[in-house]
Specification:
By secondary structure, the chain is α+β, with helices and mostly antiparallel strands. The chain folds into 3 domains: 84 residues, 2-Layer Sandwich (Double Stranded RNA Binding Domain), CATH 3.30.160; 121 residues; 204 residues, Intergrase catalytic core (hpI Integrase, Chain A, Orthogonal Bundle). The protein is built from 18 helices and 7 strands.
Length: 467
Amino acid sequence: MAGITSITLAELSNFNKNSPIRSKLRCEKIAGFFYIKLKKGGAWRLGYTDLEGKRREATIADGNIKPAEAAKIALEWRIKIKSGVDPLSELDKLREQRKADKQQKDANQFLNVGCYYESIYTPYKLANFRDGKGTLQNISRNFSHLFDRDMDKITSADILSWYNKRTKKGLMRSSLVRDYGAFKAMLNHAAKSPDGHAPAILKDNPIKNYSLPALTLAEREKLEVHNTKLEAKRVIMSDSLKRQIHNGLNLYADQVKQKRAASRAHGKAHLPDLQERQYPHWFIPFCHIARLTGMRPADIYALKWDNLSFNQFNNTTALIFTPSKTKKVNYSQKVTFPVNAELKAVFDLWQAEEGTNTGFIFQSERTGRALERKAHLTHWRQVKALGGIVSDLDLYSFRHNFISELCARGVPVLTIAKLVGHKDGSMIAANYLRHDETNTLAMLEGVGGIKSSKIEKQTVSVVSSNE
């Protein structure tokens, strides 16, 4: 073995002791084979001409390897070169393959549904979507039983099984469509390259073409009942209902003041006195804004004082915002809502009583961020109870009333659509553009009936003929 190279151990040892850095100790028996002294140790290298006629120099072994062992590797390289194989190119390919394998191994840990949800999708949703937390909760609540599975192993049978279990529990179709869409969106996200260059974690979403089963007869009937109830809400509120809401808000304000006074009288004098405030609780102006704008509750929560824009040239104020429901879609557009005198009074009074004009209009005292999106529910229930409202009226009804009143006034559908943040007027035309029920009832009086005078004449005529 020692005879295949002219370099001996003694010669190598002497070379390392006495030669300067970058010096080369060449082998006289193997063409291009040499040892190079480096700053940290040394290396065995082989110079050769590749298949394209280019001179190349490759490190074939670590300097700690004995000359005979390094020479053997050099001869193996020479055999490969003679047979038309470029070992250095093969090494480059091998390095690239190892790198790709490592990347794939790293990515494979995130192929797990639960791991991807926790480590990648959760930060993404929270950072980019206002209601990301709610979407994440829906995914976890519905599909946590799949969190120990790999995403590429999810099948349509898994979704069908989930769907059947949820429908047996009586969940609405709309809720199931929403929750399945959220889970499907997560898998779609995993099937995209994170930066346009790195490979996607999931090669292909296995359920991208799967749709939920068609509605059964029973489900269609249930949906029809639901839509009928929803249709009943898309009406103009009666004056008596509006008065009940107004009374409920006033009584709620009084109740809040009384509770605060009691707290201050029993050891909590540090709490601010609310007796002189017209809005002792944030929900009261919140409710007025919903009433006067028809805004979705989620959009009111997201409002900042910066959304109010004063135009000094025409002395008007506008509320400018982008609806959260369409913020991430292609047709998202800003709403420019003219602020009338009553709405401006609400904003001005709340700003004066809060003593700030920065940040969120309705801000959490604990976090300094926007309030939680369901924070109004408890207060709305109390207002309804105090006002004597016994129906299942929800705060969203203000939006229905706002659109319905504008339709009844003959405001163009596209104008209404722009005010409420719709991309076009189709939804309003389909669900709100109809006759006012009160006027219609008046018009129907007498239709298809017989006037009493004619009935009397016909009766007399019949009697005379019989006589």
